[in-house]
Design brief:
Blueprint (H helix, E strand, L loop, with lengths): L2 E7 L6 H11 L4 E6 L6 H8 L2 E4 L6 H14 L4 E4 L11 H9 L5 E5 L13 H17 L11 E3 L1 H10 L6 H10 L4 E5 L14 H17 L13
Parallel strand pairs: 1-2, 1-4, 2-3, 5-7
Antiparallel strand pairs: 4-6, 5-6
């Protein structure tokens, strides 16, 4: 079983070395790919020194497009599972085994880690951001038929059917809420697992209030549009 740790990175020079070191120490059997989303802080320059496979996007396209590029790489290299690990240190390498377990057991096509499903160690301060996360999670739960507590989580694992679908159709931009809907509407099974997560090692979160508002708008639009989409990949073929 070939497993790839896919790290989309945008200006993560201060945290990437620690993230990669943790993966190598705790998950030495994993291959690692960093997709540099046209960073301007030296992220690209350090990747060769870190000794990991890497791709660099010529222009800043957003995390969703970086993940799509990584999934195409995984498809070409015939990886069985892809685990998305953010470059800011929030996703502990030690939780990857738990995250991929439903895929290994053939009970899910994809799995997502939830900060709010009962795992200890992560607390989002109350306020507009947390309220917005709850709204998005409730909408996605209603639309997908899957109980979702953390619709903005970026800690994902994809099995073979999900890789095949998302290599072409992974949502661009800030993709997480739409991704959940796309997988559910394509007939793929998603498992949400309580996962311990860290606070980021450096830099600032990309989930600003403005981006969360945009995520709400995109999710609302997706609720209207996705029933009309005809997805031909994912559910068909082993």
């Amino acid at each position: 079983m070939k497993v790839l740790a896919l790290i989309p990175a945008r200006n993560e020079a201060d945290s990437l070395p620690a993230v990669i070191a943790a993966l190598r120490q705790e998950q030495p059997e994993l291959d690692i790919l960093v997709v540099d989303d046209a960073s301007t802080d030296g992220t690209g320059a350090m990747l060769s020194a870190l000794g990991v496979e890497h791709l660099r996007l010529c222009e800043h396209l957003g995390v969703g497009s970086a993940i799509r590029a990584g999934l195409r790489y995984a498809q070409r290299k015939r990886f069985d599972i892809v685990v998305r690990v953010d470059g800011d240190g929030q996703h502990p390498a030690g939780e990857i085994g738990s995250l991929i377990e439903p895929i290994l057991a053939n009970t899910a096509d994809a799995a997502v880690g939830s900060r709010f499903g009962g795992a200890a160690g992560y607390r989002t301060p109350p306020g507009i951001r947390r309220a917005g996360q709850r709204v998005v999670s409730a909408w996605v739960s209603a639309a997908s038929g899957v109980r979702v507590t953390d619709a903005t989580s970026g800690f994902w694992a994809f099995g073979a059917r999900a890789i095949r679908l998302l290599a072409d159709e992974h949502p661009p931009g800030y993709p997480e809420p739409e991704l959940l809907l796309l997988l559910a509407r394509s007939g793929l099974t998603v498992a949400e697992l309580p996962i311990r997560m860290n606070h980021r090692l450096a830099g600032q979160t990309t989930l600003t209030v403005g981006r969360l508002g945009l995520a709400c708008a995109i999710t609302a639009l997706a609720l209207l549009v996705m029933p009309l989409r005809q997805t031909t990949k994912g559910a068909g073929g082993g």
